Amino acid sequence: MFTLFFVADLPTTVGGSYEFANDDANHAIRVLRMQVGAEFMLSDGSGTWSQVVATEVNKKSMQVRVVDSGFQAPLATTITVVQALPKGDRAKEAIELLTEAGVDRIVPWASARSIGKGSDKFAITAREASKQSRRFRIPEVTELATTAQICEAITISDLAIVFHESATAKLSDQVSSHNVEHLLIIIGPEGGLTDEEIAAFTQAGAKVALMGRPILRSAHAGIAAVSAVSALLKVW
User: Fold this and answer.
1) Are residues 102 and 217 in the same domain?
2) What is the pLDDT of residues 142-168, one digit of tens each?
3) pTM score > 0.85 for this model?
4) How many C-beta neighbours within 10 Å does residue 190 have?
5) CB neighbourhood size of 187 (10 A)
6) Which end of the chain, N or C, is less packed with Cβ atoms under 10 Å?
7) Whether residue 135 is found in the same domain as residue 214
């Protein structure tokens, strides 16, 4: 698999020449030591990609030629994960893991027991994790959401699942259909969801499910949930 970089003005004409000159280009030259003849991928972050080959390498930029170009269509199921913010670096870790899991939209949530804070750097984290995981679609990271906003999102989802350790129903029992266009997964904070939050979510239409016996950290629970639900819905 070729190394992936993102550019705002993606070249798509096969045989055409393009100057690759952003921060990613600098990384490719100074850190990865790419030379003339190196092949890699460029993408606009919205599904369109181009395979290119370096024809000239300078100190901070390189000339490339487009070898191939295409478009990666989105999956049939759009996955949104509401993530109650953990503290410090664990929030960044949660964004990275959700991006690597293939989530389309990440909603940081200010839950009652959240101890983390929102950051305008989350979008950068998602972009970098997208390069690492070779995905052509960078997930959207929204502004910090309230519980009321999460309830609104539940009402317009085809399936919304809240994961909580006190749940009595297994996840496999809560997924009864494979025809889910808009999936919403809600991950609580380290301190757990409050009774009021669970009541609000279920009243809005969400299902509450148990994620196995072990209790995962909030930052790690999202990728486990996405993996399990994706398998059940046959997204994977």
Assistant:
1) yes
2) 999 999 999 999 999 999 999 887 777
3) yes
4) 18
5) 29
6) N
7) yes
